[in-house]
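Lay summary. Proteins are chains of building blocks that fold into shapes, and those shapes determine what they do. In this project we predict the shape from the chain. Here is one chain we studied, written as its sequence of building blocks.
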Amino acid sequence: MIGALEKVHSLEEYKHKKFNLKSFSASNFSRKDILDLSYQILYKFSINYLSVSSIWLFENKFYDWVFRYIAGVKMPTNLNMIRGKVLEEYLLKKSKNYDDLTKLKEDAIKDFETEIKEASREELGDIKLVCTEEEIEEAKNFILNTLHINFEFFKEREFYNHSTSIMYQGNFSIPIYGVIDSFVKISGKNGETSGIVELKTTERIPKEPSESHIRQLGLYMVACKDDLRHKDDSNLGYIYYVGSSKYMKKGSVRIRVFVFKREEIENYIVSYFENTVYKMAKFLLHFDKKEDLIDIAIPQYTSFMFDKNYRDLYGKVFNFSIDKPIPSASYEMFV
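And here is the predicted shape, written in a compact code that computers can read:
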């Protein structure tokens, strides 16, 4: 598909010649017309790309989405994200380089402390990481425990092409970006197979994968289908849930892997992202320009940009979270 901006001369053309934006509805027009218009609306609000994380924020943390993708404010990296980044680095990428687990743990903690310092720096208009020393120590212990019980498992497996950037275009005028954690080769009765890996570190191993994690993996599988570098790796996808010994009962599962076939997930993934573009555009139709949306979502935006105390307050709110119980399992694909 040619980019929507090339096909439609302006948003005004749709507004005056085709239909009234106030009555914009999926039932009145073809899917192609709706998507073309949706792209136009997103472009108008300077949304030139999408990602799994941006869509998740739009659906789950609206104000954070406005801060990051409409107002353009750099959001803080929270402790869980830093913790996951370090574990991904040392389990998937570096475990094969270490024979000494003690040395691996020391290096992982050094990198974690460096990441914390970087995230705590403050620049004009940005939100810094806000956390307590107790929370930092808790995250360190999680890293050490997770490395301790899972080091041998990951060291024995062949992971490759770590942190691969991928773009999915398909029939979308706006590209969708993502970063694949890793790929893995697995030997079995029918020979060697390969697939995409999405690593999730968690306090408690879920009995079924979350919908957002399935979408994330599915996007990467669909994107790799048309990428000559990784086409052969895209047929299978694996979500690895890795836990920490502190939160495990004796004899409990420390790693659970869910396996997906691209052919079974592809139609769902494409439809989901198309519908998300439409929903995002329909919401943005309520505003003439992005400044109107910012004024409503962030009424003290000027104070936020130039008042350190206001940013610190928001940082505390951003980094606050409450754990919710994991829903009970309905199936288990692979353990």
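What the prediction tells us: The first helix runs from residue 4 to 7.
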